[in-house]
Design goal:
By secondary structure, the protein is α+β, with helices and mostly antiparallel strands. It contains 6 helices and 13 strands. Helix 1 crosses helix 4. 42% of the residues are buried.
Length: 249
Amino acid sequence: MELIKVTAENLEKEHICCAISNNKDCQVVSKKAWLSQRLEEGLVFLKGNVRGKCFIEYIPAEYAWAPVVAPGFMYIDCFWVSGQYKGQGNADVLLEACINDCREKGKDGLVVLSSEKKAPFLSDGGYLRHKGFMLADTAEPFYELLHLPLKENAVLPKFAPQAKKPEIDAKGFVLFYTNQCPYTAKYVPLIENAAKDMGLPFRSERFESCEQAQNAPSAFTTFSLFYDGHFLTNEILSVKKFKKLVEEK
């Protein structure tokens, strides 16, 4: 498999793996707009020369849209190989390219958000541990911050204090999200409308900068749903799943 690096020059013509519709699709527009600004901050988006989910996206941790403290590290935003591209060594190719890039840039290591058990939209902790990643920190209810040090004197990364125990002072449903994932552009408005139709107290807050995201109340900033101050889920919900969750509550 050959790798393609998304740049400011080829961003418009390259598909973004998990959003492969035409450039007028709201998910594609949202993701590419977010990427175009992050590229200036050192974000790297490497993908296989295939039309599907086979990519790794990482950024200097100082600019990560996540409540982590990891100066000198690279933060993996998303690492996804799925479908017909699994089981062929493609994940190894992507991760090796990422590690080599970090070494060339003199980074202290890599850091990534995972979980105790495999969870939607989080990197596979079992695979990463197999590749040498180790536990750096934990946050409730199940988050793990894994790191791969590339220097002996690398400082251990950690979660920001407010993200260790995700709670907020608010009633009803409150959703925090970013445009880092293209799916939020499609599903957040659908959930907002569903909540309105159901007469539910619902408020959504989109993080507009890495500073805002780094002060988020939960470890996963792409999508974090709270109810009456308590964290519910990081899974980007369809309307059907949202209604089911409401029924359970």
